[in-house]
Specification:
Layout: E1 4-10, H1 14-25, E2 31-34, E3 50-51, H2 58-78, E4 89-93, H3 96-111, E5 117-119, H4 121-127, E6 138-142, E7 146-147, H5 150-163, E8 167-169, E9 176-179, E10 185-189, E11 192-201, H6 207-212, E12 221-230, E13 244-247, E14 252-257, E15 260-265, E16 272-273, H7 291-304, H8 306-311, E17 313-323, E18 330-334, E19 337-344, H9 349-366, H10 387-399, H11 423-428, E20 431-436, E21 439-445, H12 464-476, E22 478-482, E23 486-492, H13 496-503, E24 514-520, E25 526-536, E26 539-545, H14 549-558, E27 566-569, E28 574-580, H15 584-589, E29 606-608, E30 617-619, E31 628-634, H16 638-649, E32 654-657, H17 659-668, H18 703-712, E33 716-723, E34 735-738, E35 741-752, E36 757-765, E37 775-779, E38 782-789, H19 799-802
Parallel strand pairs: 1-2, 1-11, 2-8, 4-13, 11-19, 22-32
Antiparallel strand pairs: 3-7, 4-6, 5-6, 9-10, 10-11, 12-15, 12-16, 12-17, 13-14, 14-15, 18-19, 20-21, 22-28, 23-26, 23-27, 24-25, 25-26, 28-31, 29-30, 30-31, 33-36, 33-38, 34-35, 34-37, 35-36, 37-38
Helix pairs in contact: 1-5, 1-9, 2-5, 2-9, 12-17
The structure holds flavin-adenine dinucleotide.
Flavin-adenine dinucleotide binds near residues 321 and 351.
């Protein structure tokens, strides 16, 4: 084995070889893969090889499409068959709700260019005669589903990579990985050590162990998974291969395997495998079958597909494969470990492996994944995803893999884990909580304990009138909102202002002031949006999305400040409360001695001031779009602050409000938010943030590209719509139609209680952004008229928040 390589990929499963291939394709030839045994020796060899294009995250769905379309290319380059069977597939719905879900999936597929079709049960039965049509109400047909041969695919990637210059070393276990002082990595193996600039952990079933070699605890867990193959079936004789089927209510997937059918299930009584450490002597092994565990699913399966029961069972496979807590892959560079990359937690390697390899290779070679992979980025997790938390969430996710997650459905596993000091006080007010990064935060407040739950629905739910009352309180009097679930950073020391000015697109504010600023990557795309507050010459308080905290820190590390500057993440050290609405000034003024009039504390001011007895940082800004204040305090003061605000609000119409009301309020105001309106696929001018980009302040990251976008106008525009609808609002990802064609997609939606209309934000081509009429938005399969709004529906001049 050679002693140096630019990249060492650890692990020769389908993911590792895909990374290797894509690295060579992107131009890096000095790349080497080390495999403990033979290629495919983890989960890969016994996979069922099924592939699907649908995914809850449209950006992941795009990469799944890419993967499926890649196989022909691999076969061409390598001469190795991938055993590609594009049979088409039907997703069967057994309930009305599931059919609605499928209609929404079809709608989402439209703007991804997917050719999906809702079919009746009769049509479905023609396509898949093995089903009992009385068990179903309809289905969704996808022409590019099918299955591949896991061995063939892995070797096709491997050969293509070798043709591109890569080397593969088999029967060689990496036993340790050590970083040198120059930042390069020594990969330790019994066959000698190799020094590399980059390491990729594609260890699959052993990704945790490979991570632990560098002090990393990755949130992945392997689950046992079983599928069976039936005996030969006369129904399959003399006909073309039958298509693949997903039966959601049966929690079953099935496809043809030679003369019989392969049937797999995600059972409720699921079992993790090797929850703490994966044994190194596990190879091309299978686990003991446990038919009893999947018996309830089989019972349903045999009822839904009676011919399968008659065929008998020829073979059962029980093998482990890994999941992250949300079921999506973990990819990207690791903060704090220069040039250490992961590509693991890939539970659908044959649908996702190509996209994972492409994104990671782009990231390594070009410094950017080249696609919006936020949903797969390893940085979406943080310290809270311990082994036990991961275990609880993965089991929950596995056992409901085929279940509908309703838009207002909060899942219970691993909760409550993180709570702020006022948690019990909010509970006493009948708060209904959501889970955000493991943190409990109030979504809305019910009138009584008995009513404090969400009735899950795609339509307006039991929360609707209560959220309405919260919004009206903000409109007419004052609302009190917990705002702890934001990322916060304190930046201090000589050079802070200059460093922030280089990172952020807007100019740094004057002392005592706030500016809103996008953060751009070199391609001029949005990679963050912040509230930047300046306490002193070289002392800043930066507020952004909490879920992206590690993501931001990784970027800050890549563009590290001088040693004189300290960047301190302090999300949970500074918790927050906000008051908003026309009486919020009166309320807060009764607790502070500073003059809160606009003359004394104007819109976008920021200052240290005690609130009652509590030392606090106060900003005059509110995401509600109304007059309002954000108050940040060290966590031990939060209870006292909450009590003081509550007390001061008596007689002023104060009402506690939650995240659902805030969402409705900001949507009415046309305010975007991270991961919805603001993502790395949009530029600032497209997103309506151009006024927060200061092209005249001097150099900053992304300036050239932003300037080019300003000159060209970019391709898209974020637009606000009012939808003509009765009991359902947009959520995000619905297609936007214009004169009979799908032209864009919704990013957020809500019922705007202040303006009395259903509002949606979404992107359309810039040429259509001024079209007067002809728009429709598809809600649960129905195209509803949508009126483009020339300005924010609520307070377009901003007079209320500046009052
Ligand atoms: C029963 C079953 C059915 C499945 N069905 C499907 C399906 O229909 N469709 C689908 O898309 N997916 C399916 N999967 C999931 C699929 O198998 C995985 O998504 C995929 O195999 C993950 O590949 P990987 O490369 O990440 O991991 P692995 O396949 O586990 O590969 C990791 C490799 O790394 C090597 N390695 C680890 N540590 C070291 C080290 N220290 N030194 C050297 N080498 C090391 C291992 O030997 C192994 O070969 C199924 C899985 C199972 C178990």
């Amino acid at each position: 084995m050679k002693s140096h390589a630019k990249v060492v990929v650890v692990g020769g499963g389908v993911v590792g070889v895909s990374v290797l291939y894509h690295l060579t394709k992107a131009g890096w030839k000095d790349v080497l893969l080390i495999e403990r045994a033979e290629l495919t020796s983890g989960s890969t060899w016994h996979a069922a090889g099924g592939m699907h294009t649908l995914n809850g995250d449209p950006n992941v769905a795009r990469l799944q499409q890419y993967t499926i379309n890649l196989y022909k290319e691999l076969e061409r380059i390598s001469g190795q068959s991938c055993g590609l069977h594009i049979t088409g597939g039907i997703m069967l719905a057994g309930t009305k709700e599931r059919l609605e879900w499928l209609k929404m999936a079809k709608a989402r597929g439209r703007y991804l260019g997917m050719d999906l079709e809702i079919v009746s049960v009769d049509e479905a039965q023609k396509m898949f005669p093995l089903m009992d049509k009385t068990q179903f109400v309809g289905g969704l047909y996808d022409p590019i589903e099918g299955h591949v041969d896991p061995y063939g695919v892995t070797h096709a990637y491997a050969k293509s990579a070798q043709i591109g210059g890569a080397e593969i070393v088999r029967q060689c276990r990496v036993t340790d990985i050590r970083q040198r002082t120059d930042g390069s990595w020594d990969i330790i193996t019994p066959q000698g050590n190799i020094n590399a600039e980059h390491v990729v952990n594609a260890g699959g079933l052993w990704a945790r162990e490979v991570g632990r070699m560098v002090g990393l605890e990755l949130p992945v867990l392997a689950m046992e998974h079983q599928y069976l193959i039936t005996g030969d079936m006369p129904e399959l004789v003399g006909r073309p291969e039958i298509m693949t089927v997903l039966d959601f209510e049966g929690e079953i997937y099935t496809r043809q395997e030679r003369g019989g059918m392969l049937l797999g299930t995600y059972e409720k009584a699921c079992v993790p495998w090797s929850p703490k450490t994966t044994p190194w002597d596990f190879g091309q092994d299978l686990l003991a079958n446990d038919l009893e565990r999947i018996a309830p699913s089989l019972e349903v399966g045999f009822r839904h597909f009676p011919a399968l029961e008659k065929a008998g069972i020829r073979k059962i496979v029980n093998g482990p494969f890994t999941f992250a807590p949300d079921g999506n892959p973990l990819i990207g560079p690791i903060r704090g470990l220069r040039n250490f990359w992961v590509a693991c937690g890939v539970m659908a390697g044959f649908s996702q492996g190509g996209g994972v390899g492409l994104s990671l290779a782009n990231w390594m070679v070009h410094g950017d994944p080249g696609a919006d992979i936020w949903g797969m980025d390893v940085a979406r997790y943080g310290d809270w995803t311990t082994l036990a938390y991961t275990n609880a969430k993965v089991r929950e996710n596995y056992s409901r893999r085929f279940r509908i997650r309703f838009p207002n459905e909060e899942l219970p596993a691993g909760r409550p884990l993180r709570t702020t000091p006022i948690y019990e006080m909010l509970q006493a007010e009948h708060a209904v909580f959501g889970d955000y990064c493991g943190l409990e935060h109030p979504l809305w407040f019910a009138p009584s304990a008995a009513e404090a739950h969400d009735e899950i629905s795609f339509r307006r739910s039991n929360a609707h009138p209560h959220v309405g009352a919260e919004c009206r309180a903000v409109n007419e009097a004052v609302g009190l909102l917990e705002t702890s679930a934001y990322g916060k950073f304190e930046i201090t020391g000589s050079g802070s202002a200059a460093w922030l000015s280089r990172l952020m697109a807007n100019k740094v504010p004057a002392v005592g002031r706030i500016t809103l600023t996008p953060m751009l990557n070199e391609r001029g795309k949005l990679i963050g949006d912040f509230t930047m507050c300046r306490l002193a010459e070289e002392h800043f308080f930066l507020i952004g999305t909490y879920a992206a905290e590690t993501w931001y820190l990784r970027w800050f590390e890549r563009h590290a400040p001088p040693a004189t500057v300290s960047v301190r993440p302090c999300a949970m050290q500074y918790v927050g409360l906000s008051v908003a609405g026309p009486r919020s000034r009166e309320l807060l003024q009764s607790l502070v001695s500073e003059d809160l009039s606009t003359a004394g504390f104007a819109f976008m001011s920021f200052r240290r001031m005690p609130v009652g007895m509590v030392p606090a940082l106060v900003g005059r800004v509110s995401f509600t779009g109304d007059l309002g204040y954000e108050i940040w305090v060290s966590s031990e003061y939060q209870r006292a602050l909450y009590a003081a605000l509550k007390q001061a609000g008596q007689g002023l119409g104060l009402r506690s409000i939650g995240g659902r009301a805030l969402n409705a309020l900001r949507v009415e105001k046309g305010f975007g938010t991270w991961a919805r309106e603001y993502r790395p696929i949009y530029g600032p001018y497209e997103a309506g943030l151009g006024r927060f980009v200061d092209l005249n302040k001097g150099e900053f990251i992304g300036r050239e590209a932003a300037l080019a976008e300003k000159q060209s106008g970019g391709a898209l525009r974020l637009v606000t719509f009012a939808i003509d609808t009765v009991d359902v609002d947009a959520l995000g990802d619905e297609p936007i139609w214009h004169e009979g064609k799908v032209v864009g997609w919704v990013t957020s939606g809500a019922y705007g209680h202040r303006v009395g209309r259903s509002i949606a934000l979404g992107y359309v081509p810039k040429e259509l952004a001024t079209a007067e009429a002809g728009f429709e938005i598809e809600l649960i399969g129905e195209r509803r008229p949508a009126a483009r709004q020339a300005a924010a529906p609520f307070d377009p001049s901003g007079a209320r928040m500046r009052a």
